[in-house]
Amino acid sequence: MASTIRLTMAQAVAHFLKVQMTIVDGKKVPIFGGVFAIFGHGNVAGMGEALYQVREDLPTFRAHNEQGMAHAAIAFAKASFRQRFMACTTSIGPGALNMVTAAGVAHVNRLPVLFLPGDVFANRIPDPVLQQIEDFGDGTVSVNDAFRCVSRYFDRITRPEQIIPALKRAMQVLTDPADCGPVTLSLCQDVQAEAYDYPESFFAERVWKERRQRPDTDEFAAAIEAIRHAERPLIIAGGGVLYSRATVELKAFAGLHGVPVAVTQAGKSAIPDDHPLCMGSIGVTGTSAANAFAEEADLIIAVGTRLQDFTTGSWALFKDARARIIGLNTAAFDAVKHDALPLVCDAREGLTMLSEALGGWKAPAAVEAAAARRKAEWTAAANKATAATNAALPSDAQVIGAVQRTLGGENSILVCAAGGLPGELHKLWHAGAPGSYHMEYGFSCMGYEIAGGLGVKMARPDADVIVMVGDGSYMMANSELSTSIMLGRKLTVVVLDNRGYGCINRLQMATGGANFNNLLKDARIETMPDIDFRAHAESMGAVAVKVSSLADLETAIEQSKGNDRTSVIVIDTDPLITTDAGGHWWDVAVPEVSTRPQVAAAREKYEAARKLQR
Question: Boundaries of each Thiamine pyrophosphate enzyme N-terminal TPP-binding domain copy (predicted)?
Fold first, then answer.
């Protein structure tokens, strides 16, 4: 008879997680970087006691907000290139629901995180228990069913032995390059405390090794044929290049075959910005260089990208009607988008095999010549946008320039998420080392920034982590500032205060709308808020300062390098100025009918632009 060990279900979860391992840079390490936990009545007795027992092997981190801690866990996985990840546990009800938004972030960005929310009583004797939402037509539903649409795998544990297959399935999803994403195991609170005789073999150490899929023979042959006939090829590098750690292979492929490279938000830093064939960002927030190549391309090699609308200019960017796409991706779901020739494989394997098969093939010499010219033109435009001036209110681009000059070193990682900053950073930030640009723009989730910075710092403790955040996002979620100080993870946070939602205000104006409800001055208010972000950050324990000029900003950043904890630097910015150079049309539907002539004019332009969509 097989040996068993008697544990509660929650204890089984904790003991299982602590023995899951992986290999990073040739060294065996725990695959779970730890567990973020906010305890409540639905998990404190079960998971709380279980995590206490393994606290030396599986560290537990206390946070201040459930969504924030989940964002930190997701950023940890992203900064680890999906090689390691974290778990998050909460009580039932609001604690669990607070993580659903973060689950959406992980799902969209294909990032691994294990959610362990408490749930109602499986025996239903105390129903309705505190924080339980009752479904009037289905007795099996709880708030945790909200996780179903934002999880790659979901399970509700109503018996202690069910955790055995559930955890095995969870690990498969968390570590699979194609299926990777959030997993939710909903833990009924009474079952957390129930004991079961678990097989000792369930707690044997397991080392999870990376699967690198090689391409199908026929798909590979079709891709080679398409590349050999291309006269104006372009590579679009997405986040999959980084997750595959295929940056060396991408750079080698581009250089050997003379193919220019454009990068998505997730793919920025997959090739250094100073590489001669790196044309920078593509699409709506793209550089003039990258978008010029995209418009005339007859072949797009899309590597590790899901080709969302910001990348494709809402599918109006590629002007050559005969242009073909090769979808090199671990997920067939992404590889076949928009009639692409699928090449379902790992990015590193695929690029290496393609390059070997192509041999001495190279794009026409005119392509590299155009790359040099366009890159020089864009560099001049970008330098102009980021140059310091004495303007009373600097632009976002000018602040980016100041931060880049003072903190944009080889050891720096830039973190951002939503608002106007992602567009400016995508075009203007100079990314070097892989992972040095950390942008959450798949879900464009306001409030990710500070918590994300914490997660990055936990994954990369030796890096200088810079968080750039607008006042709107700061107001939505800032509590993990305190967590960063509590855990000794120093961040440098630059808050750009344009007194409202400046990005959406500009979009509102561009679509013919009136200035309404975005900037504070245009909202329904009795008293204009005068928010002191410096004082607020200081009250959270940060070293904080407000500056009044770009020169003072650079000085404050230099001084912050000597601080022993998280530093917050606040600067007022202009809500209307954005970089005119680069960019592309984006499909935002304009009303067909309106009493305002500005909307009618915007609709006319909108209808003309839609005719260019593929």
Answer: 47-131
Say which CATH number the domain at 469 has: 3.40.50.970
Placement of tokens 């499909």 in the chain: 587
Residue 121 in domain? yes
Rounded-to-integer distance, Cα 420 and Cα 417, Å: 9
Q: Is 413 exposed, middle or buried (0-12, 13-18, 19+ CB in 10 A)?
A: buried
Contact status, residue 298 vs residue 325, Cβ threshold 8 Å: no
In the block, which residue shows the tokens 């990258």? Answer: 290
SS3 per residue for 491-510:
CEEEEEECCECHHHHHHHHH
Domain of residue 476 covers 387-572
The Cα–Cα gap between 277 and 370 comes to 10
- Structurally, how many domains does the chain consist of? 3
Dist. CA 176–CA 392, nearest whole Å: 51
Report phi then psi at 422, rounded to 5. Answer: -55, -40
pTM: 0.97
* DSSP label at residue 478: -
Residue-wise pLDDT tens digits, 19-67 = 999 999 999 999 999 999 999 999 999 999 999 999 999 999 999 999 9
